[in-house]
Amino acid sequence: MTRDAAIQLAKNAFDDGSFKKELTKRINRPTESQNPARHPELLSYMAEELQPAFEAMGFECQSLTHPKAKAPFLYAQRIESPDLPSVLGYGHGDVIRGLESEWREGLSPWALTELEGRWYGRGIADNKGQHSVNLQALACVLAQRGSLGFNAKYLIEMGEETGSPGLKEVCQDNAALLKADLLIASDGPRLSADRPTLFLGSRGCINFDLSIESRAGAHHSGNWGGLISNPGIQLAHAISCIVSDRGEIKVPEWKPASLPDAVRRVLADCQVDGGANGPAIEPDWGQPGLSPAERVFGWCSFEVLAFKTGNPDNPVNAIPPRAKATCQLRFVVGIESDDILSALRRHLDRHGFGYVQVKASGDEVFKATRIDPDDAWVSWAAKSLQKTTQKTPAILPNLGGSLPNDIFTDVLGLKTVWVPHSYPGCSQHAPNEHLPPELLREALQVMTGLYWDLGAGDTPHSRLPS
To answer: How far apart are CA 186 and CA 180, in angstroms?
Structure first.
């Protein structure tokens, strides 16, 4: 009954094909939450794949519902003793649209296919592969120890890819049921494929539209050029007052006052590298004076996601009547999320762009979160990962992308430690989503070691005064 023996079970589960068999069944289910026709698949994934897996490990399962949610949430718990630490896990079984016609020849989003040293399939990175790793790791600890040694709670949703409708309300309504000392969950990418990673929160995200509606219709550019305004030109200048030609944000309220010392310290050990499939990092793009890691994990970024004026596919000799840009701000802790669009409105007005309309392009705003990199749970988790892999893990103050992490930190009051099992070049949300199998094999060992250490007695929970 040892840690090494439990990790060997994890290796065996990968090497003998049993883990791949379970993952294949889950990839085969087209759980596209953005496609209403797939609603039965959302329900069957919970009922036929995940609930039996939890019940086989002695978990009690129940459905949690809310009118906003696309499908019931699956809640599973295994309570061993009130004196033990309680850990909440989270995952999602829904996936982004399959985009079947865009996958390379011989691949399908709904089949786990091994090709050229990679495993392909929709959800393998986001999030079926990741929560499957964690469930297998729990099973390995139970098989070796006979118990977990901690109280395990798990919440699975089927609407993350559509903004997690109902998740906040379900957590509010069931706060006592979900009470825990810590969230340990897996989503998003590692810093690089071969380096175990922890991240402690996520950047916030808001999407919005900038638009100009100048007149009812287009007018001939020969007859009216030089006499009437061109909204495409005007909107381009409005955007240039928001961000420089090198990507530096100009809206004062969108820039953090500073980088905390603890954030700067952990990021000093992080090198951003998208690997062979990733784009080259441009050293002079974004906020001057920051490292690449600080720019993506410690600062805010503004992007124009789409810009349209006239008819780009069939331009004519006419001044267009309108222009529209869909934009996005990724922001970190320290930026007031409720003031983002108001601050933009004030900024545009100061620069003479009062005629530019600003409108949120969705109801969902992900808030920025991070726990202190110096928190005792962070150092405990990092020590566990290093013991398993003999590698120094990367510690990111937050994911560069966005997750509903604020629900766990603000609604449930949890410390949050995420252990991702993907990598930046995985083609998440795109055709040909994949993972290297060696990453999954190492992830199984990492999570088995982490869960083993949770039950070994020497955690921040056990050292806290009663």
So the answer is: 17
Q: Is 317 left (phi over 0), alpha (psi -120 to 50) or beta?
A: beta
Q: Note whether 120 and 102 are within 8 A (CB).
A: no
258 — phi, psi (to 5°)? -170, 170
In which element (H, E) is residue 370 found?
strand 369-370
The CA-atom distances, in angstroms, between 460 and each of 180, 184, 456, 457 are 13, 14, 12, 9
Is the preceding peptide bond at 127 cis, omega within 30 degrees of 0?
Answer: yes
H or E stretch covering 90: strand 86-92
Which two structure tokens, joined as six digits, stand for 183? 């969230």
Domains and CATH numbers, the chain: 3-202+368-463 (3.40.630.10), 204-268+288-360 (3.30.70.360)
pLDDT attached to residue 70: 84
**Local structure of 323: helix, strand or coil:** strand
For residue 364, what pLDDT is reported?
A: 73
What is the structure's pLDDT at 463? 61
- Pairwise CA distance, residues 330 & 296, whole Å: 9
Rounded mean pLDDT for each run of 10 residues along the chain, 466 residues in total: 97 98 98 97 97 98 95 98 96 98 97 97 98 98 98 97 95 98 97 96 97 97 98 98 98 96 96 80 95 97 98 97 98 96 98 98 86 97 98 97 94 98 94 98 98 94 60
Instruction: Give the pLDDT of residue 466.
Output: 45
d(CA 192, CA 206): 26
CA-wise closest residue to 286 among 273, 303, 274: 303
Contact assessment for residue 11 and residue 445, using Cβ atoms and an 8 Å cutoff: yes
pTM of the shown model: 0.92
Alpha-carbon span 160 to 407, nearest angstrom: 13
